[in-house]
Amino acid sequence: AGPGEAPGRARGSSPSAGPRGARGRPSPWSTRPPSGAAAPPGGGRGPEGPGPGAAAEGGGGGRAETLLDLSAKRVAETWAFEQVEERFSRVPEPVQKRIVFWSFPRSEREICMYSSLGCHPPEGERDSRVPFNRGLHLLQSGAVDRVLQVGFHLSGTVTEPAGPSEPERSFHVSISFDRCKITSVSCACDNRDIFYCAHVVALSLYRIRNARQVELRLPISETLSQMNRDQLQKFVQYLISAHHTEVLPTAQRLADEILLLGSEINRVHGAPDPTAGAGIEDANCWHLDEEQIQEQVRQLLSNGGYYGASKQLQSMFNKVREMLRMRDSNGARMLILMTEQFLEDPRLALWRQQGAGMTDKCRQLWDELGALWVCVVLNPHCKPEERALWLALLKKWNKLDVCPLEEGNYSFDVPGATAALQLPSVPSSAGARQTVFGRAIKAGELRWGDCHLQKILGSDCYGLGMKTGGDKLCFDPQGRPLWLGDPFPTACARVDALRSHGYPREALRLAAALGNTMRLQRRHQLESYKQQKKEILHKGSTSITNLEGWVGHPLDPIGCLCRTLLEPCRTDQEGLSLYPGTGRDVPRSVTGGGKEGVLVNPVTVPALARLEPGGWGPGRARAWGSSPDQPPSPIHRLPVLETVMPAGDILHQNPLDSMMANRFPRWFILGHLETRQCELASAMLTAAKGDPKWLHTVLGSIQQNIHSPALLFKLAQDACKTATPASAPPDATLLNISLELGLQVMRMTLNTMTWRRREMVRWLVSCATEIGVQALMNIMQNWYSLFTPIEATTIVAVTGTTPATLLRLNLAFGQRDELCARARAVALQCAMKDPQNCSLPALTLCEKDHAAFEAAYQIVLDSAAAAGMGHSHLFTVARYMEHRGLPLRAYKLATLAFSHLSIAFNQDTHPAVNDVLWACSLSHSLGKSQLSAIVPLIIQSVQCAPMLSDILRRWSLPPPGLAALSGRRHAAKPPAAPGLDKAPLCQLLEAAIAAYVSTTHSRLTHISPRHYSEFIEFLCKARETFLLAPDGHLQFGQFLDNLKQTYKGKKKLMLLVRERFG
């Protein structure tokens, strides 16, 4: 075979998969090539064209490129090399080399797109974590070495410099490419991500910038075809010798198959060549790791509760838009992979089962997903088979039960729920099941072939200077084009699709037409309003022309339109803007700046508010009416809360209103609107400072329209901070308003506790302190309507009487006594209402007043007698009484606690164990009478044998207090320990022995061999208690004999008993 023929070569299939045609056909609307993405997130040299190496090869430095290079460039972009070989029987070697040379990607912008998640990450120019930046740094530091290009395969070594704790490491990198796209990558590093690692970036940038320095060889099959048999055998043997540990098994297997007649390898003509490029039928798209994309999306969705996960998913959506803008087929491919993982989210089935709405973060992600699919389906130049494939997938997903509704709330899918929420004027179709993919499926029915639409997109001058002709709905009175072919959100989706697919000029023209349409529509609405003003005032209702809210719409029509209109005004310092010519000032004159100047007039007038008076009319376009007597209208409407006009009136609306659709508003936007409403209210309070009349007016509006306790509390805090500047006297009116807002928050959250409730109560007390003692006393007097008993006792009453508060108020002695008396009265009232939680705080607060203290103590006694307090609270109060030096009262409360206590035989670790031991120690120290009185209570309340024996041993010792007292008296003898054979301890001893016997039988009922050793230890403790009795030896022996006779079936256990006790 000649050098241009390769009959012995068969190409392997490309590792990439996906739709054919990574770039769409050239647009008939623009002669520019597809625009690239924005600047890379790295510093240094940004993404450029072929680079200095390629420029030098092609005749840079001002010289014209040769015809061979020009032809090779075009062929390398559009034809697979197999197609070249089929078309021409002989291709000279120099021509092959130039085609192979120009087949490698020439734009660093595309390398950046596939090696960084975000197009503009925060501090992207210095973010060393971005693979593109790291690869650029490796390239600039000379880390790329041994670069070799064999056909359509590039290989090299990238060396990572040594770190503080890591040695220097080298990684072998291999890249396959075809038609100016990287089709597969391989790197020895362990980095696994959805995009290329830094080493692949470094090698790619080296090839782009230093193309002339890279050693270039033809595909290996071309070189092999020039060898004779001896050379081929020597080549194979040297190759096996150099890599025998890796390739020897494979070489032997292939040799066996070749020597076997009739084997599959002998039936195929030629052999695969990985360096020969892709075949004609292979997909022509950039390498994209599908498994990594699926894994990363799955992991991010599983961490959906975290802010970083939503941010990363949003970055992946932005990457899809970037690919669409580059007209890269991987954009739709990546979106398919993400959608499949979104639908496999296990939370969807859970939300549907519970009938609950998804979280706001998830809802916004699903809305973005649906909007992206609308952009993909509305691709103006996609192939029909691609659109059919996308629509088939969308319809399949749309039928899934877990597919989220567009509202983000599964309760709308419950039978009967839709009918209850449906507006009378909304057609019945509005209640149909509308999923997040519904708009994309409907968008598949839209086409771009409308003659009027094509003229709008095709020229900046279309309609200028024309007056209204026969078709009144195509131009406004000034002759500017209108577009009424779609509802407004759908028309804006067309604009978004044009921007997303790299047609910014066409998007700008359509956006200008929509701006003209909106302005003319508002003018018609104003005229209609003036004509029907008397009728509307008579009915007392408002006419709704926009039942589908645009704010928070899933397609974001307002945001899309604004971005499209304002983006050309942005100056890009690096000259990488999507809009040529925007780096300079655009002339305002229509004739002074070419097409850019012509485009200024239709864009600037509707978009940048160069409007004649009253041009936008009333309603949602602005907050105040255009006529002096017109009432103000809210910017953000809630149609569900408004009066709906009769269905008959809708049929007679102006044709311009056909842009409106019928849907409920997006509820998740309410949180954002309420926050902005709060900011506005705070600004109004600040502006009205010093004017009591306006302050009360603003307060009334706030109380009427803001219903979120958190936002009201924030407003109260802001007002208090504004009213008490550091360098000026406080504003009393604004302080009172902040207190009133705080009181409203307390009333709203009294029965629905929030985690910020205690913070709110503390702030309210401090705010009342700033106002004065009367405000503090007022909230104490009305505590039952503002606070819970525990809040009023532990926060309000305590904080209001602290030394710091009294010092801050600077009160006279009489006022101090009055405030403290009011606080004690509040504490007593709270103790009566909630004795369990408020008794101890009330006692603490009333310590300095004997009458109040006695009243609080009596409340505790009454509550204990009426079973209003548990044993734990009674023990706590009893310990407090002992600490106050009132042991008899403590003993009284302890005896009451025993009446509410019950400790079973197996509750060795009962929470009240320490309290019981403390009560026994207290009664022991008080004397024999108290000891005798408490023993029956203990026997009745405690059935735990180890606990009873512990109490018995403690009581068998002298009381610690009396022993110390007797040690100071030289004449008296130390008090003797109570006798265990006399009352009251003999009763406790008998109870302890009986408890051990019953506990033993209970444990033996369900004992297992692994608990035998533990049971033997339990018997040892029981013997110690038995021995405390005068005839303990006999009782314990009889007890063991009874066990041996009763449980003689447990031979191993009884053997252990005999070994231990005889």
From TrEMBL:
Naming one, the record's GO cellular component terms include: Cul2-RING ubiquitin ligase complex
Extent of Gly residues compositional bias: 41-63
In terms of domain of life, where is this protein from? Eukaryota
Give all residue intervals belonging to the SWIM-type domain: 171-208
User: Do you know which InterPro entries this protein is assigned to?
Assistant: Znf_SWIM, ZSWIM4-8_C
**A GO molecular-function descriptor:** zinc ion binding
Region Disordered, as annotated, extends over 1-64
**PROSITE patterns hit by this protein:** ZF_SWIM
PANTHER family per record = ZINC FINGER SWIM DOMAIN CONTAINING PROTEIN 4, 5, 6, ZINC FINGER SWIM DOMAIN-CONTAINING PROTEIN 4
Q: What is this protein called?
A: Zinc finger SWIM-type containing 4
